[in-house]
Design brief:
Length: 353
């Protein structure tokens, strides 16, 4: 049976300085939740409070229905994997995996069984006799995850575990951790500053900024319906385009174009348009005339166009496939008005009416 976690108005201050400002969050049993946000937004602090490594200043931490604020880390049934592997250099991989269990005075046969099981899950059986310095970065990170697995925790917490690995290995380990979650079915929380990791791994993404939960939801919920400018700009790559627009009764004037939004708004607003929702082929929708092409990136499968509108605003466009677009050319772009996000003066999304 997997474990549920609930945060109720969780706060943290270091001395007089508040860094987490009252976070409410429910994590369903067996869910893979990703905390994402820029460096310094409080991801590690939140994770460490759940783990019991950091005292909670205010609010309630509820695990499986029980308040855990004052329960010591060792009694929470949680194992944490860090960015730094912190393996014991003088011990073999086997000893590294067994050490915590030996300290807890577990019978030798049970330790042997758990180490072999973890090694099998992580495919590191041939490495059990090696020392950490005889391992690659990816293998070391696997041992660090193995140390969490042998404890058979109710909850796994990961704090940027892949940041020290090169790009290719990061993608491979991302898939392995997702598989691990599928196989074990435990509740897991994974911290990263990388929105691609968040989008690809999460059942639920929690976007944090400056100690505040900006939005929580399934990856595509956040992509399709960002609640504010911050989430809109943070989720998705390349970033959503933002254009300033004057709106009168739902009719917008922006980028030399006029368009009708399905929203009853008036005033100076920000329009958000994802690069992949703009096309260059003649078609229906909103027309952006006289757009200047500044730069092109031919990625093979996609063509990324960096352009400037007739109002002088920057626009990034991602076109499928290989396109014969010339640098310096003037083009006309089109977009589907239903794909346009509108944000008010405070940066909050105005939903489609
Ligand atoms: P993240 O993991 O998202 O990069 P952290 O949780 O490490 O962010 O930090 C959140 C904020 O708390 C930052 O402003 C950081 O400077 C501050 N902070 C973290 N640890 C301490 C500490 N031990 N003492 C004082 N401030 C801290
Ligand atoms: Mg951190």
């Amino acid at each position: 049976m997997a474990t549920s976690i609930e945060l109720r108005q969780i706060k943290k201050a270091y001395g007089e300085v508040p860094v987490i400002h009252g976070v409410d969050l429910t994590i369903e049993p067996g869910q893979f939740t990703v905390f994402v946000g820029p460096s310094g937004c409080g991801k590690s602090t939140l994770l460490r409070m759940i783990a019991g490594l950091e005292p909670i200043t205010g609010g309630d931490l509820i695990i499986d229905g029980q308040r855990m604020n004052d329960v010591p880390a060792a009694k929470r049934g949680i194992a944490m994997v860090f960015q730094s592997y912190a393996l014991y250099p003088h011990m073999s991989v086997y000893q590294n995996l067994a050490f915590g269990l030996e300290t807890a005075r577990m019978p030798k046969a049970e330790i042997e069984k758990r180490v072999q099981q973890a090694a099998a899950i992580l495919k590191i059986e041939p490495l059990l006799k090696r020392k950490p310095k005889q391992l690659s970065g990816g293998q070391r990170q696997r041992v660090a995850i193995g140390r969490a697995i042998v404890r058979e925790p109710k909850i796994f917490l990961f704090d940027e575990p892949l940041s020290n690995l090169d790009a290719e290995l990061r993608v491979a380990m991302r898939v392995e951790i997702a598989k691990l979650h599928n196989d074990l079915g435990n509740t897991m929380i994974y911290v990263t500053h990388d929105q691609v990791e968040a989008m690809t791994m999460a059942d639920k993404i929690v976007v944090l900024r400056a100690g505040i939960l900006e939005q929580a939801g399934a990856p595509l919920d956040l992509y399709n319906n960002p609640r504010n400018l911050f989430v809109a700009g943070f989720i998705g790559s390349p970033k959503m385009n933002f254009l300033t627009a004057t709106v009168e009764n739902g009719a917008v004037k922006a980028a030399g174009s006029s368009l009708l939004l399905g929203r009853d708004v008036t005033g100076t607003k920000t329009l958000g348009i994802r690069p992949e929702h703009i096309t260059i082929s003649e078609g229906s929708g909103i027309k952006f005339a006289d757009v200047r092409v500044d730069l092109i990136e031919n990625l093979g499968g996609q063509t990324v166009v960096y352009a400037t509108t007739s109002d002088g605003e920057a626009l990034t466009v991602v076109l499928e496939g290989q396109r014969a677009v010339a640098m310096g050319a003037t083009v006309t772009l089109y977009l589907d008005p239903s794909k346009v996000h509108v944000f008010d003066e405070a940066g909050n999304a105005i939903s489609q009416s």
